[in-house]
Amino acid sequence: MPLLFSLTVKHFFEYSIAEVFTVDRTNIDDYLEKGMYGEKQIKPAERKKYLGTLRERIVVALTKGQVMEQGTYPEVVQLMKENPKATLLLNGDLDYSYISDYIAIARNNQIAFSIINNHTADTNIGLVLTYNHAIEKDEIFISKKKEQQQPPTKKKKGIFSGLKSFLRK
Q1: What is the CATH code for 44-130?
Q2: Distance CA 24, CA 33 (A)
Q3: pTM reported for the whole predicted model
């Protein structure tokens, strides 16, 4: 039975006192839990891992290590340009110097961004480009940058190797 808040004197006598003050116990428990712990969330472990969003909403994600690499990932920049209505989530545990380039790119492309500081959850995710609805993308991670290959250096030839090549001719 719902709780009756306003009763006139005339209506009060039509109900027994037990009926007037009867409250649905589950509603009170739900209300108290909501006040103490916040709204109930779907997949809270997944939300903690992906900076507050669900995996099914993510366009691209980078690990903390990838965000801390020098420069930016061109794939992320391209996806930011292709998805202007997405939101960029950045891990607040990272130093600002690592995330500032991504923030500048987001501002230039007019993409909303947020720095997530969740000290109760430990995650390896450093950056997430996400929507507020499901997109169900199969592969959200980008492989690490390949180290730029240096051109092979010529081996220095010693005195005998020069003499040896001279004698072969």
Answers
A1: 3.30.1330.30
A2: 15
A3: 0.65
Identify the residue whose tokens are 């292709």. 82
**36 φ, ψ (degrees, to nearest 5):** -80, -40
Sign of the CA dihedral 104, 110, 111, 115? positive
Read off the DSSP letter of residue 141.
B
As annotated, the residues of the chain forming the CATH 3.30.1330.30 domain(s) are 44-130
Q: Which residue has the tokens 């507050």?
A: 52
Dihedral of CA 27/31/37/43: which sign? Answer: positive
pLDDT per residue as tens digits for the range 11-36? 555 555 555 455 566 778 878 888 88
Taking every pair of C-alpha atoms in the chain, what is the biggest distance, in angstroms? 124
What is the side-by-side order of every strand in the sheet holding 112-116?
A: 58-63, 125-130, 87-91, 112-116
3-class DSSP state of 32 = helix
